[in-house]
Design goal:
It contains 12 helices and 39 strands. It is globular, with a radius of gyration of 27 Å. It binds (2R,3S,4R,5S)-2-(hydroxymethyl)piperidine-3,4,5-triol.
Length: 742
């Protein structure tokens, strides 16, 4: 890995053994983009990449030159209105009303390692040798606003990160109305756009479309990154698939309002912008003031989507997630939410816990309803004290009793919210987000606390810390069940109201930072009605997240498959729940529910006392199985094999780091008769290793399994007389492959 500056051609080249990123200082002093893609050898001058020509209707920068128009040049941090008519990366409104800026190159710095981002989650290095960082400093001479463009290239993998820091060195305050984290100008638009979209209980479905002239975008203006669109985009070539081909992944490490967009211009070049949503953002830059944008991670590969995802997985597991849980196998938990909802007593909880312990579960999680007057979703949020009527021994008493059973204890919070029917709200009615003289909208009867105010965050911290100090709590589920409306803070002046959405998220990050550093052994799981805020920003604090409130195994195939495009298996909260499933009434076999949940953190969300003795024995076996394989399932290399978006079958697999063990998950949604012979061409095995298929005892070399395939045919390929076959709808299998010899 290296970063080189070629003085004569004024060219920066960042490269490692996978990728190159090349920029130059253009004739007008702006930073131009020359190349991003597969590594090319370093040389003095690539200026031929910067093509110019006189085009009709273009506006030009120089009096004597009809060829130099910013409209047709690829740039690193473009502004609008000085010959470029595309959407821009930065916009500053000045005292005289002008929005024009002119960011001229001033200097650069190269450093080993990677600096942190003040107040924001970001990838990091542990050793300086893991990455190098280039900082290019630009300045607008009129306003004296400086822009520092940060580019980090990691030694391993085709990964770069980018972010931007503003510093105002002038004398008159200005308003930052757009400060994107990334502008990536690419020379052609021959890509398929792939996004992860959905809604509550249907998160992260894969949607694709061809790029067309104009702007296509995803984003959120809800105050949270949202169920609707994950802050993640893939641009892949038409011929790219899971196994081969070029792809660029763009992932924004941010949990609030965002936008990722691609603009195809009239000459088929492509501009990608990613960052804080400009529609709902303004930031007052006072003299001497600073602003830091969130970080964007860019992955380039020419080895297909699986390889792109694996690059994100490793980076996010090892250098985004932090703390002692980062690379530890996750405890198998039981959560009482779908077992009891709000209807529980201490006795009932202990019954559920005792049965779970008997089955081998390691962590009991008490969900919503344990605090204040919380007997429904209309009251109690904000009062983080145990409800003595339900829990006579308090949280510490209950935690002690769970620990005495030989399990760890975990607790649910929704720190950012209040019900109006709560003591906290009655004491601080002015602490919710609301606009003066306007109605206050609710979501699930709850209101959003104004986390842009430090005193509000402090008060919530105090309540949570008190419980964490006094009770033996090993895990926290941090929920967030509504989006922001009437965004306004009474603590900030009129000309800073545009900052509130971002300041809110900074407050959330601040609370997470304080709790995770004060209580470093606690495992945090983020949640927002399932996947309403499942994003890389959260992963920095909480190494796992509840990806969906939909716990049906068949729905989960799509949700987990889509989520795996960017996020590692170790980050996905996955539970076995009861049937009929509570979200859509579907009956699925117990083994299929587990076979899907194994590819995640794994747990149960039902009352195990209600199972038959046979089912209880099956659960015990599932837990033994998961304990044996969880480390490799969660931290091995994950491959998608067959997409649930494309047919009746889904398949995926995980391979251990030493390639000696592989687990293949195979799922068939609807049963069939007189069907086809089927086989799965596996990935990631060692071709010369001989693997024993634990299901049927057969042995096959890695090359057979990868190139000819694992035979998955069963009696559905023939005539199944009067349903005698073992198969039903929603059938699934796990193939365990263990090396026998090499
Ligand atoms: C939404 C979460 O996603 C659920 O798992 C559960 O914790 C409920 N909130 C509790 O209100």
């Amino acid at each position: 890995m290296n970063i080189v500056y070629h003085e004569t051609s004024k060219t920066f080249h960042l490269y490692n053994d996978r990728i190159s990123y090349i920029m130059t200082i253009m004739r007008n002093g702006h930073l131009g983009q020359l190349y991003f893609g597969k590594q090319i050898r370093d040389r003095e001058d690539y200026s031929y990449f910067l093509e110019t020509c006189g085009r009709p209707m273009s506006s030009n920068v120089y009096d004597d030159d009809r060829t130099f128009s910013l409209e047709h040049l690829r740039q690193e941090y473009p502004v609008f209105g000085t010959t470029d008519y595309r959407q821009c990366a930065v916009e500053i409104r000045q005292e005289n009303g002008s929005r024009i800026s002119d960011f001229q190159y001033k200097s650069y710095k190269i450093m080993d390692g990677k600096p942190g981002l003040a107040g924001l989650p970001a990838t990091y290095t542990q050793e300086d040798t893991e990455a190098r960082t280039l900082i290019v400093i630009l300045e607008d001479d009129v306003t004296k606003v400086q822009v520092e463009l940060f580019y980090t290239i990691f030694a391993q993998g085709g990964v770069m990160t980018r972010s931007v820091r503003f510093y105002h060195g002038g004398e008159k305050p200005v308003l930052l109305t757009r400060a994107m984290s990334l502008c990536l100008d690419l020379p052609d638009c021959d890509y398929v756009w792939q996004q992860l979209s959905g809604c509550w209980a249907r998160e992260c479905h894969i949607k694709t479309r061809s790029l067309e002239p104009g702007i296509q975008s995803i984003g959120s203006m809800r105050g949270n990154s949202s169920h609707e669109h994950n802050p993640f985009l893939v641009l892949k070539r038409r011929t790219t698939d899971e196994r081969q081909g070029e792809a660029i992944g763009i992932s924004l490490i941010y949990s609030g309002n965002f936008r990722i967009q691609a603009e195809v211009d009239a000459h088929d070049t492509l501009r990608v912008l990613a960052g804080i949503d400009p529609e709902t953002f303004e930031w007052k830059l006072s003299c001497g003031g600073e602003f830091q944008t969130p970080e964007v991670v860019m992955v380039y590969t020419d080895w297909g989507l699986n390889h792109m995802s694996q690059t994100f997985h490793k980076l996010y597991q090892k250098r985004l997630a932090r703390g002692c849980w980062r690379e530890r196998a996750r405890p198998i938990l039981i959560n009482n939410w779908e077992a009891t909802y709000f209807d529980f007593t201490q006795e009932r909880l202990l019954e559920i816990a005792a049965k779970a312990k008997e089955c081998g579960v390691e962590l009991f999680v008490l969900d919503d309803g344990w605090f204040g007057e919380r007997s429904s979703d209309r009251a109690g949020l904000g009062d983080w004290k145990a409800n003595q009527k339900r829990l006579p021994d308090g949280i510490s008493g209950l935690a002690d009793r769970i620990e005495a059973l030989g399990m760890k204890f975990g607790l649910w919070f929704e720190p950012e919210m209040v019900n109006k029917d709560s003591d906290f709200y009655r004491q601080h009615p002015d602490w919710i987000m609301s606009t003066p003289n306007r109605s206050q909208s609710h979501g699930r009867y709850q209101y959003v606390l104004d986390f842009s105010r430090k005193e509000v965050v402090d008060a919530v911290y105090e309540q949570m810390a008190r419980i964490l100090i006094h009770a033996k709590i090993s895990y926290i589920k941090w929920d967030m069940n509504r989006s922001i409306t009437e965004c306004y803070s009474k603590a900030w002046p009129a000309d800073q109201q545009g900052e509130i959405y971002h300041r809110y998220i900074l407050g959330v990050y601040d609370l997470y930072e304080r709790l995770t550093s004060e209580f470093p052994n606690v495992l945090f799981e983020s949640c927002a009605s399932g996947g309403g805020r499942f994003d890389p920003g959260m992963l920095y604090y909480a190494p796992q997240g509840w990806i969906s409130d939909d716990s049906d195994a068949i729905e989960r195939l799509k949700i987990q498959y889509g989520t795996s495009m960017c996020y590692p298996i170790s980050s996905m909260g996955t539970h076995v729940s009861a049937v009929p499933n509570h979200q859509l009434g579907r009956m699925t076999p117990l083994h299929t529910r587990a076979n899907v949940a194994y590819f995640g953190t794994f747990g149960y969300e039902l009352d195990l006392n209600r199972l038959t003795p046979e089912e209880t024995e099956e659960v015990k076996k599932q837990i033994i199985f998961m304990k044996k394989y969880r480390k490799m399932l969660q931290f091995g290399t994950f491959y998608r094999l067959q997409s649930p978006f494309e047919g009746n079958q889904t398949a995926w697999m995980t391979v251990s780091d030493d390639q000696k063990t592989a687990l293949v998950g195979f799922y068939r949604v609807l049963n069939c008769v007189n069907g086809c012979f089927t086989r799965l061409r596996l990935l990631g095995l060692n071709p010369v290793y001989c693997y024993r298929n634990v299901v049927d005892g057969s042995c096959h070399y890695g090359d057979e399994l990868m190139y000819a395939g694992l035979i998955t045919s069963d009696e559905t390929a023939g005539e199944m007389i009067s349903g005698q076959g073992m198969n039903t709808d929603f059938e699934s299998r796990i193939y365990v492959l263990e090396v026998t010899e090499s």
